[in-house]
Write a structure and sequence with these properties.
Length: 191
């Protein structure tokens, strides 16, 4: 029984990462990520039901993002307060308050991971850094796993799980960073 408990503890937690190593990883991510002001590329999205979507994404700090879906009639545009669903001509179909979601925090001017998130773990892999965290200001059990490229500090993947363990995964590829992205890309039109 004791051996089983020890095995469970050792395999359940990233015990090999010290507090100092975690802080070092977080500092590297923050420094690198905060030096990226714009980012664009392609994304692959898998929702909690296994549906696959793809398209192009654009990040412009602070707070602006756009997800242009390839085979969908709707796109997503965010700012500091709203997530907007728009048609292909940019006309708003619907909108939702963002509150303190992970995307908003990531796209702030100066991300402070320890201020915004409760860190479950931060690990270094061969090519990436990975953080699992919860929202400090949210009492739900939602979690986010963020993966950053170790060399470029580009966001490669995020996995968001809500309190019901519904997961949405986005993987980012063909990334370009610190390029010009026009404010006009994020304009929402109204009928």
């Amino acid at each position: 029984m004791i051996r089983f408990l020890i095995f469970l503890i050792l395999t359940s937690f990233p015990w090999h990462i010290s507090y100092a190593e975690t802080n070092s990883i977080i500092t590297k991510i923050q420094t690198g990520w905060n030096n990226i002001q714009t980012m664009s590329g392609e994304f692959l999205q898998v929702d909690s039901e296994g549906h696959l979507q793809n398209g192009k994404f654009y990040f412009l700090k602070p707070y602006q993002s756009k997800f242009v879906y390839t085979n969908k009639n709707e796109d997503i545009i965010t700012n500091e307060t709203l997530l907007r669903v728009v048609d292909k001509e940019g006309f708003q179909i619907d909108s939702y308050a963002i509150r303190g979601n992970a995307l908003k925090k990531l796209l702030s001017d100066n991300l402070d991971i320890e201020k915004e998130f409760t860190i479950d773990y931060a690990i270094e892999n061969e090519f990436s850094y990975e953080i699992q965290a919860g929202d400090k200001n949210d009492s739900t059990l939602s979690k986010v796993i963020l993966t950053f490229n170790k060399d470029t500090m580009e966001l490669e993947k995020w996995e968001i799980s809500d309190e019901l363990d519904n997961k949405t995964v986005l993987e980012f590829t063909k990334v370009k960073k610190n390029i010009f992205i026009s404010q006009n890309l994020f304009v929402v039109r109204y009928k």
